[in-house]
Amino acid sequence: MSDVLTELAAILEQRKQASPESSYVASLHNRGLNKILEKVGEEAVETILAARDVQSGGDSQTLVSETADLWFHSLVMLSHLDISHEQVLEELRKRFNISGLAEKAARSKQ
Ligand SMILES: N=c1c2ncn([C@@H]3O[C@H](COP(=O)(O)OP(=O)(O)OP(=O)(O)O)[C@@H](O)[C@H]3O)c2ncn1[C@@H]1O[C@H](COP(=O)(O)O)[C@@H](O)[C@H]1O
């Protein structure tokens, strides 16, 4: 999973130098942070609507696709601000380790 993010993040870095006419990612950088944030917001709303549809019996593939769009545009946002996706993965790892330790401590008290 994080391999895919790492490969995609490397492509996104390359696209910072690409021409906006030939690359969607370059066109987002060219239009600036506000446009990128607008896309993140749009994809977040579309993800929420797709999740509600799944709950009422709709197609889960639409939710998968919208979540991919949300993650993708979030990666473009981080890249635009020169923040590595690794920092986000590290934050998740840290929380995972903290909760793992907390669970162990709780078990040892039983
Ligand atoms: N993963 C993606 C990806 N996911 C979604 N999208 C694009 O995100 C856009 C979202 O759809 P919308 O209908 O909301 O967008 P739109 O109406 O075209 O855009 P706006 O006018 O609203 O800005 C679509 O144009 C999709 O093609 C992506 N575009 C590119 N990638 C990856 O990014 C890499 C670099 O792409 P380029 O910069 O195009 O070379 C590619 O190799 C892919 O791996």
UniProtKB/TrEMBL annotation:
Q: Report the principal subcellular site.
A: cytoplasm
GO CC field: cytoplasm
Q: Where located?
A: Cytoplasm
What keywords would UniProt list here? Amino-acid biosynthesis, ATP-binding, Cytoplasm, Histidine biosynthesis, Hydrolase, Nucleotide-binding
Instruction: Name the Gene Ontology molecular function terms of this record.
Output: ATP binding; phosphoribosyl-ATP diphosphatase activity
- The keyword RNA-binding is assigned to this record: no
Quote the EC number.
Answer: 3.6.1.31
Spell out the reaction equation it catalyses.
1-(5-phospho-beta-D-ribosyl)-ATP + H2O = 1-(5-phospho-beta-D-ribosyl)-5'-AMP + diphosphate + H(+)
**Record-linked CDD domains:** NTP-PPase_HisIE_like
| Biological processes per GO annotation | L-histidine biosynthetic process
- Pathway, per record: Amino-acid biosynthesis; L-histidine biosynthesis; L-histidine from 5-phospho-alpha-D-ribose 1-diphosphate: step 2/9
Answer whether the UniProt record assigns the keyword Isomerase to this protein: no
Q: Which domain of life is it from?
A: Bacteria
Please state which protein family the record places this protein in.
Belongs to the PRA-PH family.
Q: What is this protein called?
A: Phosphoribosyl-ATP pyrophosphatase
